[in-house]
C-alpha cells in the first residue's frame, strides 16, 4: 500500500498529551486526517492543572510541568505567541532559604543578580496551553478512554490497532506514539515484534516525573513575600527537597515542592501522612502562617499507571540520556515515536515535547513524499 495524501488516509496518534495534540494540530493544518487515542479520561497527559474543589476563585495550580524559559526554548515561546496564551514571570524577588536540619533554623541567602534564569508560567496553569492546542482540532479528533493494547502490521503494511474493551480494530496508514517509551514497551504488544535494540532503548529511557510526586499548598495570600522571601527553598531535611512559589499572578498564594522521599516511602506513608509532613515543613520554614492552609493538592505520578511502570519507582540519580529511540527503522518507518523523552536537547521539558512533535510530523511528511514518488 502506498501513501496518497489526496485519499485522506488516517494517521493515528497514541496519547493526547502535549506532543500528541501538537502533532494532530500540525497534521490538521496540512489537511492530513488524524485521530488521537488517549487512555485517560482527560487530555494533557502529564500536564495537569487543578482547581480547588468549591474554591475555584483561588485559581488553577500545576501538578505537572510548570515553567518554560523563553531565552532557551524557542518552540514553546513561538507557540505561546501564535496561540495568544497569557503568561507571567515567575516571582523571584527576595531571599531564598536553605535547610540543613529540622533542628536548626533555615539559613537565608540573597542570590547574585542573574543567578535565577527568567522563567514564565501560564495564567490558568499549563493546561491553558493544552486547551489552546486542542481548540485547533476538528471535533471528534480525540478519543478518550481508548487504551491501545497491540499494533499489528499486515502484508500490505496497513497497521491495525487493538483497543482495550473494543472488538473491532482501528486501521491506519501510520502510527505516531507519544507515550513514554517504557509505557509502550510494557503495555503494548507488536506484530511483527519490535527489534531487541528498540525494546532496550525504550526500557532504558526513564519516564520524566514518573518517580516524583508534587504537592501544592494553597493560602489566601503569598504571606512569605511580606517577610522578604521569594519562596525558593533547598532542603536536606524534607520531606520536600525543593520548594517554589506557585502563586497565581494575583490573589491567592501557593507553595509547591518536589519530594526527596522515594516513591516507595511515599506510598507506605499514604497521602494524608505525607501532606501532614509537608505542612509541618512549611511551618518550620515560613512560620505559623503556613499552618493556615486554604487547600492541599497532591499528585503522585509513580502511582499513575498511564505514567509509571515498576522500574520508575527508583529515583533518578542523574539526568537521563534522552533522545531518539534506537532501531526504529523497521515497519517501513510507519511507526514513529515522539514525546519529551525522545528529544535530545530538551528532554523532560514542555519544549522537548513540542520539538519531538515537530520532528515526528517532519518524518511523516517525508514518508508521504517518499512513497508518493515511489508510486509514480
Q: Helices, strands, pairings?
A:
Blueprint: E1 11-14, H1 18-29, E2 34-37, E3 49-51, E4 60-62, H2 74-83, E5 87-89, E6 95-99, E7 107-109, E8 120-122, H3 127-134, E9 142-143, E10 148-153, E11 159-163, E12 170-172, E13 174-177, H4 181-187, E14 189-191, H5 196-203, E15 213-219, E16 229-235, E17 240-245, E18 253-259, H6 263-269, H7 271-286, E19 295-300, E20 335-337, H8 350-375
Parallel strand pairs: 1-2, 1-13, 2-9, 6-16, 10-14, 13-20
Antiparallel strand pairs: 3-4, 5-8, 6-7, 10-11, 11-12, 15-18, 15-19, 16-17, 17-18
Helix pairs in contact: 1-3, 1-8, 4-5
Task: Tell me what you see in this structure.
The chain starts with 10 loop residues before the first strand and ends with a helix. It is elongated and about 70 Å long. It has 8 helices and 20 strands. A 7-stranded mixed beta sheet has the order 7-6-16-17-18-15-19, with helices on one face. It has a 5-stranded parallel beta sheet with strand order 9-2-1-13-20, covered by helices on one side. The protein has a domain at 1-49 and 126-208 and 320-375: FAD/NAD(P)-binding domain (3-Layer(bba) Sandwich), CATH 3.50.50. 25% of the residues lie in helices and 23% in strands. The chain is of the alpha/beta class. Residues 1-8 and 372-376 have low confidence and may be disordered. Helix 1 (18-29) crosses helix 8 and helix 4 (181-187) crosses helix 5 (196-203).
